[in-house]
Amino acid sequence: MPARRAVFALLTIVMSSLASCAAFRGVDLSGYPDEQRTLFLHNFTNDSFQADVNVELTESLRREIARRENFRLMPDREGARLWVYGEITMYRRAGRMFDNLRTPTRLELLVAVRIKVRENPGENLWVSREVSARTEFSNREGFLETEFEARQRLLFTLARRANAVLESEFVNRAPVIADAP
Length: 181
Known about the structure:
Helix content is 36%, strand content 30%. Strands 1, 2, 3, 4, 5 and 6 form a 6-stranded mixed sheet that branches. Residues 19-23 have low confidence and may be disordered. It is α/β, with parallel strands linked by helices. It starts with a helix and ends in an 8-residue tail after the last helix.
């Protein structure tokens, strides 16, 4: 009986890891014409009081879009089919673990962003969606990391999630591709 439980536990772990790998598989938009996949990335606005996080997020999303190669970034907004912009609605830094003097030894960062996509011309709003990410870090115990390093890691995760929103919304709204003969 213990051997059956071990096999069942191993099978459960393997299946859950395969399912998680399938969930993070990206969308391939190379079948759509290039002129449909052009976008202009506006600078994000910052409604939080954390300086420069909007610039860092814009650059992180720009790198992620270029890395995935599903969209072509245009230098001017008039040449792009889609306009992507948004605002950082929340930036929170809170203590998670404290020492005896109530000084935080582990901190949590939480960033929330509202992503908006408009179609050019006509400026039809395609999507307005809230995306968030969180991470923990410590500069005093365990894996030592500065707040800047943790924020860069967090913004990379946020850029991946924002790009996933762009890709899924594009697939939902774009015309269907006719299969080649």
